[in-house]
Amino acid sequence: xxxxxxxxxxxxxxxxxxxxxxxxxxxxxxxxxxxxxxxxxxxxxxxxxxxxxxxxxxxxxxxxxxxxxxxxxxxxxxxxxxxxxxxxxxxxxxxxxxxxxxxxxxxxxxxxxxxxxxxxxxxxxxxxxxxxxxxxxxxxxxxxxxxxxxxxxxxxxxxxxxxxxxxxxxxxxxxxxxxxxxxxxxxxxxxxxxxxxxxxxxxxxxxxxxxxxxxxxxxxxxxxxx
Length: 226
Fold this sequence. Notes:
By secondary structure, the chain is α+β, with helices and mostly antiparallel strands. Helix content is 28%, strand content 24%.
């Protein structure tokens, strides 16, 4: 926060800041990000109390020093906020809210920082309750939950999934991709997958209706009778 003089009202930096993140390193990284973003937004399509961002800058310091004060998580979710489009996440313009959930998609150039500097930042400054790491090539996968100001590893269940208390969802690897699963263990589908499932169910229902119609006809039931 910058003050023009001792008696003037505080002057905040601009809040309509563009994200300033480098492009994702590979197509596999991009596909993973899109998969998580679209499946979560479809699952929560009736909710208006969250924001999910991908490869987007989080501005948390008014000094705006890129090397020190701006960090762009690969994927993050903020809860109890307005669901609307944003160019970046500007903490001082969002009632001081930081992400509740962060996932970093590891790469050769970022993995060291993701496991150390960023993890420390998210723990000590952001105070982000859930932090996850995933490598789309080696399938390294880990999750942490903030407990007494320190990140503690999240223990996997029998399927190897990790529970996100913030999202109330499991995260697990399926077909070499990180996916969301409901508390009951159901896969959270993307919009395209949900459409395929819906069409399959419609086809099954139609086939059953045709089967029932033939059976009734065999029994001599005239459905055209009034």
